[in-house]
Design goal:
Elements: H1 22-33, H2 38-45, E1 49-63, E2 69-78, E3 80-82, E4 88-92, H3 96-102, E5 107-112, H4 113-122, E6 127-130, E7 138-141, H5 142-150, E8 153-157, E9 160-164
Helix pairs in contact: 1-2, 4-5
């Protein structure tokens, strides 16, 4: 019997179709043509929903009497990418289509860009890589990653871009 003090949380993105946010799509398209549009893409990302892939990871395994391995348990985990220089990056995607192009078996978890940036930092990653398989890759690292995770807002101040505290 349900108790009145317990409620299921409403989904964070109840009308989400899995499509890319139009403002982010436009900014990424401009970034794909000209790298100088990075600030614009970053600005669009701060207000966008990001899809973080979650995949099954084998926890424990047991060997049966025939010598065959069987899954005893499995966990779900966000995906970290290790760069050639050894640094870690959390993967994020602008849509379920770009996620499926990378790995059709990954489960999409919709989160805010701020949440994705926070998760990257908590996992020890130095970057959030959006749409690693394209069509346009956006890498958020360093001060940009920390500012995004902190909820700061990228804005133009006297013609220059600056991170402003919330």
């Amino acid at each position: 019997m349900p108790t009145p003090d317990r409620q299921l949380l409403a989904p964070a993105f109840p009308d989400d179709t899995g499509e890319v946010d139009p403002a982010l799509a436009a900014a990424l398209a401009r970034l794909g043509r000209d790298a100088s549009h990075f600030p614009e893409a970053l600005g669009a990302l701060q207000d966008a929903r990001v899809v973080v892939p979650v995949v099954a990871v084998l926890g424990d395994m047991e060997i049966d009497s025939a010598g065959l391995a069987r899954d005893k348990s499995a966990d779900m985990a966000a995906v970290l990418l290790t760069g050639a220089d050894g640094r870690l990056a959390l993967l994020g995607f602008s849509s379920t289509a770009t996620l499926a192009a990378w790995d059709p078996e990954a489960r999409p978890v919709p989160v805010t860009a701020r949440t994705a940036a926070t998760a990257a930092i908590q996992e020890g990653a130095t970057a959030l890589v959006l749409d690693v398989a394209g069509p346009v890759r956006l890498v958020v690292e360093g001060e940009h990653l920390r500012a995004l995770a902190s909820g700061w807002r990228l804005a133009r101040v006297d013609g220059d871009l600056a991170w402003l505290q919330p």
